[in-house]
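Quick entry between incubations.
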Amino acid sequence: MTNSPVPRVQGILESCINVSDLNRAQRFYQSVFGLEVMTSDERFCAFQVGHDVLLLFKIGESKKPAQLAGGIIPPHDTLGAGHFAFAISPDVIEDWRAFLAKQEVTIESEVRWERGGTSLYFRDPDNNLLELATPGIWPNF
Amino acid sequence: MTNSPVPRVQGILESCINVSDLNRAQRFYQSVFGLEVMTSDERFCAFQVGHDVLLLFKIGESKKPAQLAGGIIPPHDTLGAGHFAFAISPDVIEDWRAFLAKQEVTIESEVRWERGGTSLYFRDPDNNLLELATPGIWPNF
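Done. Structure below.
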């Protein structure tokens, strides 16, 4: 790789959103997506999502650097409605519609993409915009 | 999958951050990470990152719903320093240190994780906190 003009990144490992009530958000992501918590404390919660990591940060708690045994995590913090999308198989989109209804999560919008994919949009308790996306959205998915 | 109590998500497909100057941010992500633009307009820019998608949104431009041919993308918008991490191979971490220095991107901090991974932290032009992470960070990476 040394000859490469730009060293490569393999993919996005961690995505994060900010929430006002970490316990409430944790319950939401566990009950709606069945995600497993890898680590959590008063500052944040890390969920395993396949090979990826979803981080929830409590708003304001990461405005200062976090000192760990192995170094310092620099500050970050956002306000407002974040956004990210989960990939799903087209086979389960009807299961998702039924399951979201059962969980009383309202589908706010739906987009049918030119390439054939479908996106379902809804909100977490902090108004972050979540998306479930089937293949046929992007050239690489 | 119909018998599953919770339908499954496969992974995180799209991650997004907000930027004040879309052209400047686009140049940064192209030059520093060699990312390919899949789609861009005045509102946003979508980069391919392996099997994932990195979305840059111009701050304020997604406060209103976006009407597309296939439906409506609901509003979202954040202010402040967002955060996400790229996965890299441990083989290229020294190449990354050299390349970031050459690009005049300052490594703000470095964390050595108990499981053996390393994280390099630095900023994009909008102060978003970026991380390059080698395996040995999380139970699933």
